[in-house]
Amino acid sequence: MTRPASPPPGLADEATLDQVGREGLVAVPGAPTPAHDGSGRVQLSFTVTDGQDRAVRVPPGVTVFDSASWNGIAIDSTCGGHGTCHKCKVRLDVPTPVSRHDRRTFSEGELAQGWRLACLATATQDLAVEVPPLTTRPKAATVGVGRQVILRPAVQKRYVELTEPTLADQRTDLQRLSDAVDDLELRVPLAVLRLLPGVLRDADWKVTAVVVDDELVDVEPGDTTATRYAVAYDLGTTTVVATLLDLGTGTPVAVASRLNKQQPFGGDVITRISATMMDPDALARLQSLAGETLDELAQQVCAEGGVDPTQVYEVAIAGNATMTALALGIDPEPLGVAPFVMSSAHPPVVAAAELGLSLHPRARAVVFPSLGAYVGGDIVAGILATGMDRDKRTRLFIDVGTNCEIVLSDGETVVSTAAPAGPAFEGGAIRCGMRAADGAIEVVRIEADAGTVELGVIGDVEARGLCGSGLVDAVAELVKVGLLDGSGRLVTDEAAAAISPALAQRMEKVGEERVFVLHRPTPESPTAECVYLSQRDVRELQFAKGAIATGWTLLLEELGLTHDDVQQVLLAGSFGSYLSPASAVRIGLVPTLPVLRIVSAGNVAGEGAKMALLSHRERAGAEALLEQVAYVELSDRSDFNDRFIEQLAFPGAQGG
Ligand code: FES
User: Fold this and answer.
1) 84 CB under 6 A from ligand 1?
2) Is residue 184 in contact with ligand 1, taking CB distance under 6 Å?
């Protein structure tokens, strides 16, 4: 369960290949043998001019540039680490191989002193890195959970004023343009070549080249460098959220959400997978509904932001493995049956138009990779947004939902798993359960001494039901006052009366079942619905939280840790963000920690998608996570049932 010692693909592999294959590296005589400590990581100690010297640890093989970039340390660059701008100069204390670009950039004396281009220097052992003052201060944006991302979008715009061809200068139109942006090696699709002659001449040779990675996707008349946008999606099974991003500033321009239009095919991934198994037309329909959902949101955020949709050049989509497969039109059936295999962990980059999006005609869609059938791209995006893989602390990430994803990092190793929590947290299988919408009780406070029950209701309207956070609160509060015992049983009427006569009056029977009434008609609101928590509801919650607690307990054991080692819990997802940390601790949904160390991480999937758009290095980091994060399968563990039963009790019960 340790990280592989090899460098993450897409980063170090790319650099190594680039250097050895294309650069013709020259080994430095006497260079020390690559070495790093037993943790499988190397340490880079950066000396930076703002005085905030930093030491970071990365897998061996990562470039110095990426190591800095991943950790929010700015190094000069205009090419974004492609090895072409020759600006990322750093001085290393240990000589590394010299590339052709190094030779072009530095004198022999400087090379001997350890000067190298950071994006071509690979860290294979501990290094001290001196970073000169920045000549162009890179812009940065704060996204995710306190992550500082240096803006290096894959989408670049370059305004150029070209000289007209003459008989003495018969360079082609494309050569003329390429010469003006010679730090980029352009790939040019036929569609752009077709429009190039007309645009150049109509625009009097003053144009803006739009480049995504290395592809010239458009040539626009005049200077359009101030307008480049992208849309980040959190593609949820229930709700889809879109954020329009200004790639020049890194700021969100507009945000919108709507229900996933696939809802009529079922509320969860299993029912949607089943639909495709029973109806041969369902997959095409589900794909088209995903596209409609994404496009309606794109048009909405563009309208709200006053942005022409054709100025959106890229989108990033973070969804679970099933939502990803359906959006791409890939048969999801293998995800729903053992052994739960994905068609591919790395979806290809596709044209946004292929997904049904009406944006720039050559806009791209970047779809997050998945760790497994039940730890999908939304969780990879969440790990990116929270920096779980880069933090020294022992942190536990829990995305609470029907399928609950759990990630644990001890600062060196990251492990993940999925726990089937069932529908209780979404109000399913709960007598008075409902989704988190107007009328749902989301907060419950019970005071035994005063005999009071206070409710927080979404929309400040009459209570109609109980959503997930209200369910957790109600159970936790009943545990707190002693009306629920540690095993999850409502106490007897006599015991309830001894605790609080007023609260005891709320213990009723509905049919044969004992319930605790949270809300009922009053003379002031005689038509109000009766909302209660039943004994069976408590059991449903116990099963759900038992599955989750078993998941993180086994992950802790996997890394040789105990509850006491956990320094922070991040609660993610729409449900996790609204959960009361105190209640989560009281029912044992999370390890027993001071509540300040239990943090609502919010919509981390959407934040990860934003990061991938703002920095192509972060995007590469997401790909690298597939090699770094180990997946632990719980279902085949022989001790799972015993461990699950151990986790059913409520640790915060009186005398418990
Ligand atoms: Fe441009 Fe290294 S970042 S050459």
Assistant:
1) yes
2) no
**CB-based contact 26:97 (threshold 8 Å):** yes
CATH label of the domain that carries residue 285: 3.30.420.480
Per residue in 202-261, pLDDT (tens digit) is 999 999 999 999 999 999 999 999 999 999 999 998 889 999 999 999 999 999 999 999
Residue 460 lies in a domain: no
Q: Give the separation between CA 551 and CA 591, rounded to whole angstroms.
A: 12
104 CA to middle of ligand 1, Å?
Answer: 13
Give the list of residues 6+ apart from residue 275 with CB closer than 8 angstroms, or none. Answer: 265, 266, 282, 286
Same domain, 30 and 120: yes
Within 10 Å of residue 539's Cβ, how many Cβ atoms?
15
Q: Is the CB of 117 under 6 A from ligand 1?
A: yes
Q: Please give the residue range of the domain that contains residue 331.
A: 229-367
Distance 85 CA to ligand 1 centre (A): 5
Instruction: Determine which residue's CA is closest to atom 3 belonging to ligand 1.
Output: 81
Assess whether 211 and 337 both reside in one domain: no
528 in any annotated domain: yes
Provide the β-strand partners of residue 319.
235
383 in any annotated domain: no
Which residue, 181, 204, 221, sits at the end of a domain? 221
Cβ atoms of residues 609 and 316 within 8 Å: yes
- Write out pLDDT tens, residues 121-174: 998 899 999 998 877 666 777 777 777 788 889 999 999 999 999 999 999 999
Structure-token pair, residue 176: 């003329």
**CA 607 – CA 598 distance, rounded (Å):** 19
Q: Say if CB 457 and CB 578 are below 8 A apart.
A: no
405 shares a domain with 342: no
Residue ending a domain, choose from 221, 247, 264: 221
